[in-house]
Amino acid sequence: MIKGMSIETLRYFVAWATAVSQSAGLMESMQRALQAQPNTTAFVDAVREHCTRRKKEPDWQAADDALAWAGATDCELVPFYSALYPPLLRHIQAPPPLLYARGNVALLSAAQLAVVGSRKASSAARRFAHALSSDLVGAGFAVTSGLAIGIDAAAHRGALAAQGGTIAVLGNGIDRIYPRNHAELYESISADGLLISEFSLRAPPKPHHFPRRNRLISGLSLGTVVVEASERSGSMATALHAVNQGREVFAVPGDIRNPLSRGCHKLLKDGAKLTESVDDVLDEIQFLPQLRGASLPVQKPEPMMSLSPDAVKLLDHCGWAPFSVEEVLSWIQCDAKRVAAQLTHLEVSGYIEATVDGRFRRAR
Length: 364
Known about the structure:
3 domains; 14 helices; Arc Repressor Mutant, subunit A; Rossmann fold; alpha/beta
């Protein structure tokens, strides 16, 4: 609750915000009202006048349900005027007047980067999103995405695996889990990250909710990384929102034969930052003025452990295509036991990773 705001005032605010969340057409009038009113009391007075003029009673039941929901330990209502409201989000077009939040609300003021992409992403793209998100957490950022299957889920899981902050922006009421097979991920984020929604409780995941959700993903973030996306997709819409909001856009190149690479390649042609590793993101983002005062510092990830001359020699021979132990033995004059030891050292160091067919591939 906003400090100094009465329950009655907040009740009016929530009732009006519920009406806004159900009608995109009210967003413009909401934005004008927020900009015109300097304090919560004046704003609620404007809401009362608005309701009287339209001869429409606010949805008191929805407001009371929301206030009751916010009484739970890890649940919070974050109105526009709250000190908890994300600073970057205040400055987008039509910011939501109210956020429903569950989890670590302090993450709202963290320095965030969005990682988004296709629901039908390739396994390689999902691995990249997972690794990139872990690295971003190591660099001091929270990772923001949309809880969708594919790249979104990989990004959230990568951040959680690195024991860092991740924020899931929902396209439905925060008390509903969508997609249903993400119930475990939903609970993990609520325990160790943050779930947020602008939609009222019990709101279903309607198709038109997700374009609105996408503007919040980019609006919360200093930049948006698109890992894999078709030319017409929600991820491309998120990138366009980022451009319109004056935020950075990053794109990961892919196989030219893959239709899901075309969106990223279009972004690269339009000036997005080509992204092959976390360093490409950090090099672009670290000088942004918005980072001043952010709650998470920006720092380079810890370097991987040093390699022996034999390991470096082996790595140079490997190239970037998957390879087997037998192939390595044919490349270098070394006994099998020593090669196995070097491969183990490279895998532990993070330079290579095992594939499902028992071979290895370069990880960086």
